[in-house]
Structures are given as structure tokens and as C-alpha cells.
Sequence to fold (824 residues):
Amino acid sequence: MIAELGQLTLIIAALLALAQFAFPIYGAWRNNQSFMAMGNSTAYGQFVFVSIALGILTYSFLVQDFSLAYVANNSNSDLPIIYRISAVWGAHEGSLLLWVFIITLWTVAVTVVSSRKTSVLPKAFSARVIAILGLVSFGFLLFVIFTSNPFDRILPAPFDGRDLNPLLQDIGLIIHPPMLYLGYVGFAVAFAFAIAALLGGEINREWVRWARPWTLLAWSFLTFGIALGSWWAYYELGWGGWWFWDPVENASFMPWIVGTALLHAQAVTEKRGSFIGWTLLLSISAFSLSLLGAFLVRSGVITSVHAFASDPTRGVFILMYLGVIVGGSLALYALRVPKMISGSGFTWFSRESLILINNLLLTVALFMVLLGTLYPIIADAFGMGKISVGPPYFGSLFIVIMAPLVMLIPLAAYSRWKQDKAGRVLSKLLVPLFISIAVTAMVAWQNDASNLRTLSGVFAGTWVISGTLRYTIERFRKNNRFTLPRSEFAMVLAHIGVGVFVIGVAMVETTSTEKHLAMGSGDSYTIAEYQFTFKGTEHIDGPNFSAERGTFLVTKNGKLISTMYPEKRQYRNNQIMTEAALDPGFTRDLYVSLGDPLDEARQIWAVRIYEKPFIRWIWLGALMMTFAGLIALSDRRYRRKKTHQNEPSAEPSNNTNPLTNGSMP
Amino acid sequence: MTPTRKKRLTVVLLILLGVSVAAAIAMTALQENLLYFLSPSEVAEQQMPTGRQFRLGGLVKEGSVNRATDSLKIRFRVTDGLKEVEIHYDDILPDLFREGQGIIAIGSLDNNRVFQADEVLAKHDEEYMAPEVADALQKAGHPRASKDSTSVAPSEYKP
Fold:
């Protein structure tokens, strides 16, 4: 009975979403205050009803209502409570419901912020934003109700459920999807702001100032979500990689690339008024790529490690939705943009031109990933055979495109708006250049095996970090104190994060030691000075699995470093899982996982032994970027009260010294 | 032409040039990294040249798995019901590899027409079969094709 209630709340939510679109958009058009205000109440209402639906689904998992097909397929009476909760978004239907819930969450946040007394948003503008968000949500609610209902009954109800995919029975997967969706869906807010601006037709730079904190927040969540997914894949999938250029990963990475370009373009638009059309286009693109990601993942058109069931009606629905949203917004863009103002000009070498290069490179990277991801689908559709694109395509091209971007980071931070001299900027960066060369030489000297790829990665990373630090020190000197405005501190932190990330990737990809071998109890093997001794396996039982647990002693120069316990689990639904054992460290991870038993009587197992230098730096860099985004959005200028909205800093500044003229993130 | 226009034209031309170079590089890299998918029947028909990497998919033939006990070496055959291909592999198998299960192997044929696999993939889900494999089985009229291609994966994992 309660499940039918859940279905009913979804239908009510869909009707409210439609109202949330129709009333305020009409109100904004007719300048009717009461119609505009209806956006707020319908948004709150929709949030309440979607929350109830999500609550009911969670309740059904908690009480193990196996008469619901979704619960029966993704839970089991032995499943621990915490995983019963995360199972709510463990598969298609529930994760879509989570998606809708997050849209309504963002909508409520926008509604609350824009209806505060101190809000600088014009009423008509915020009414349009809320209306667009209502339309986005309406589409997804229809999708849930008609093609992916989590409340479908199964008759007769099975005695027990099939259990949640063991891969998902993990802390990483409890938080990874919500974070990722907060990012994906968060770009809907930037999108709604862009569409509202286009609809209103009176674009000015204020629009970017309103949209920017929301973009920063969404981008931070997406960065964190992707990093979590990478970390989870590393320790849970049992083969120790951190990124696979899998189509589903690409689906989350493409909005990130565009989101990053958008943040930089917004900086230019906010400070200088240039790039307004481009910023609008990027806002539309970031969300469109989120939708494309949803299509790729949900329609089953792609083959990937993320094994998905395909249902053609779902694919067709999302494709139509994608067509309406993307087509509609691009058409609106084409109609409106020529009328818009353009900002002040700039010369060949200026902060604007460097950010333009950043945006061009990110756009090229995006098209490269897009091509590699879509090519197999297109080839298949045109009967050119079943094709897949190997990871080297992405890996090698991405490095080629990103290398100049990374090298330009310190230059961009130093250069002035409007016009500058390359010589002036480069002269400031001589010390960082020297430091980078010294560090690279030191790395080359320490590891005689290091190759050109390692060294160029280390050089690039050190260059970004030292160049950014040099800038920070100069700012401290100028200000005579050790603080920076928050947005500037965020820029510094994010760029150092990029450097840390680059070093991590370079070290892991070129200097890891990996060995796959057969080991019997008592055997030893040494990689990178670490001696691994296999002490055999023992049988253990978990709540819903039984396992063989291996014991490995790791010694270095005769000293015990760690005892590692990798497991091979058999879950009650007969699925087999590899639980890798990790010994994490700041400069290296040790990794052991069991393959399959080759000879059970003699306890001979297939074993993976890895030493992965600096792999933690990859996620550390991503975390720094995440926090940088959060810090940037807490900057004072976004909390400015209405009475201050016309203060001079909103005007184009003639002061071209970046050291007194704020910053870019 | 006014200086501003001239400048704009140069910028546009430069961007155009950059984009074309990037596109050319991307297409070349793409061509080099394309992997075709073949079923055992197609391998038999198409005379795939030796040494050329491709993806081979099918079911692991029952009773064909033969492995060493003190090294990772393993030999098995994949079938689509009509034809079979012998696969040699010297690495760790995925957790879901077993007889009768659909797999995809990446590698190339050697001079004896044996498929030397660099990588063997099985799906993370027992019920799931890669669309390519399901397709190939259907074409070959294999009985498992109809059952599996319509079955819904019980638990998928999300991005």
C-alpha cells in the first residue's frame, strides 16, 4: 500500500513541477507578481513530495518489502542496514529518483536564496530560473514515472531478494552517486540562469555574478564525486587502476571539462564583461553534457565495465528530452546572442587571452573525449561493425592537449587584464623555472630508471606549484600580511591542486611496479625493495558472504612494514568479489589482491602485487580543487547586500594590475 | 580592411588552423586505437591477419579450460555455437570467468591461428552479457542468445 503512495507522490510532484514551470514563466512574461511567486511554493511542494517518495523507497528497503521489483532485485534479507539504504540508489530506477530529488534540492536552495530580503536578483529573473528548473525536473519525473518506476510490484513476491551487487556494498558507493549527481544536476542551475538571462534579453555582467557561486558549488561536487569514483574503482574493482577511460567515466568527465572552462570564462565576464556569449554557451553545454551523460549511462547504448541493462524506450525518451532541452536552448541562444553587448577589448598577451587559450584547449579536449566516446555508437548505428576505442587514444591525446594548458597556469595568474608583456611575466617566473628544473633533475638523479614522461610530468607539476607559490608570496609582500582574499586563495589552492594531481599521475603512470604471478604458501617475491611473503589463506565468514583470506607479510630491508589481508569473497548470490588489501602511504601505496586459486590443495593462488608511487596525490589534488571551489564561493562579493550592488567594482576597471584587481579561480 | 578586422581575421584563421590540426591528430589517433569486435564465426570467415589486435567474444566452451597449477598460463576455447577459437592467456582472469560464461578477449591471432589474449574481460554481473556477445550468439543461432539478451541485469553499477 505504501508503495502505491510513493507512486502517487511522484505523480503529484510531476504536476507541481509543471506548475513550477508554467506559472512563474507566465508571471515573468506578464510581470505578474503573484504568478511569479507561485514558483516558490510549487518548488517547495515538489521538494516535499519527491522527498516523501524517496523516503518511501528507503523505508521499503529497510523493511525488506520484496514485493517491490526494485527492492527484490537489489536487496536481500542478509544485507546490512547501511547497504540497504545505499541500495536505494544502487540501480537504475532508484538512482533516477535520487537525481530528481537532487534537482528539487538545488531548486529549493535557489528559491531560498533568491527570495531572501537581501537578494539582488530581480523578481522576474529568479522566477524564470525557477521555471526552467521546474521544466528540467518535470522531464525527469515523467521519465521515472513512465519508464523507470521504482515502485513497480512483482507478483508473486519472491521469498528473498537477489542482493545488492557486492561491488556496491562499500562506503565509497554510498557517497559517490549523491556527490556526482549534486555536480551533474548542479549545472542545471547555471543552465537555468543562462536561459533566464537569454529569455529576459537584458544581459549584463550581473548575471554572471549571480550564476558563479552556483557553478562553483556544482563544480566542487562534481570534482569530489569523480575523485570518489576513481578512488573506489582503485580499491574495489580489484585490478588497481584509477581511471579507465570507460564511457561512463567519460560521461562524468565531459561536464567537468566544460564546467572548468565555464568557471574561467565566468571570471573574465565578471571582471571585464568580455566572453558573455561564450559564457552563456558554456553554461548551456555543461548541463547538456550532463544530460548526454545520463543518456549514455541510462540507455544501454554503450558497452562498459559499468554493466547496464538496456531498455530501448528509456533511450528514446532521454534522447527526445535531450533534443528538446539542448535544441531549444541552442535555438534561443542563436536568436538572442547577437543582440548582446560585448565587453572591453584586450591584446595578444593579457589575462583574457590566456584564459581564452585555456578555454580553447579545454574545448578541444572535450571534443576529443566526445569523439572517442560516441564513435563506437555512431559506427554501430551506421553498420560499420562493432568497434571500441582503446584507452591509449584518450591517454596520449589528453596529455598532448593538457600539457600547454598546465604550463600556462602560472603565467595566467601573473598576467594583467587587458594588456601585459610576456617578458615582464616570464621574468617573475625565473625562480620557479629554476626550482622546477632542480626538482626534475633531482628526481632523475634519484631514480636512474626514470624516463622522459615521468620527468616532464614532474617538471610540469613542480612548475605549476612553484609558480603559483611565487605569486602568493609576492601578494603577501604587497599586502604586508599573510592573507589573501578568499577567491584568490581559492585560485592558488586549485592551481596547486592541479600541480599535485599532475605529479601523482606522472609518477603512477610511469613508475609503478606491477607483478602478476602464481604464489604458493611460503613463497616470496620482491618488487621495488618490498618483499612480499605469502602465508597461505584461511576461511572466514561475513554477514552475507564467505571468503578465503590471504595473509601477506611485507618487509623492507628485513623490517616488517605491513601485514596485508586480501580476500576472495563469494557472496550468497554466488557472485565472486576480489577485496584488495592496501597499505597506503603519502609517497607510495602497496597493493595485493588475490586472483583465483590455481591449486587449492597446495594453496597456490594467482596474485597481483603492485607498488604505486604517489597515487594518493591524484586524489589529494582533486580534493584541493574541491575545497578551492567551496572557498571561492564563500568570497565576500557573493554575499554583498542589495544596497551595495552598484558599487564601482561592478564597472569595468581601468586598473590593469592583477595584484590589486582581484583574481580568477 | 581596418586593423581591427585584420586582427580578428588572423585570430579566426589561427583558431581554425589549430582546430583542423587537432582534428587531424585526433582522427589519426582514433584510427590507430580502434578495436574491431569479431565472433568465432567471423574469425573463421574473415581471415583476420595475424598480429592485428581485435576483440573476440563468445562463450567459454564447457570442458575446454586447461590451466597450469604453478603459473598463470591458461588455455580455453570460445564458441558461438558454430565455430570455436583457441585462446592462450598468461595473466589473471576476471572473477566472473567460468565455463559457459560470455567473455571478451583482447589480443591477436598468432601463426597457428591461436588467439593470444592480452586481456580477458567478463562482466561484473552473472546474468549480464555484453551486447556484442549476445548479438554474435543470436546471429549464430545459439540457444543462450535469446535468453540472455532479454534478461535484465539485476544490479548494475553506477558512474
The first strand of chain A starts at residue 387 and ends at 389. Confidence is low (pLDDT under 50) at residues 304-309, 642-665 of chain A.
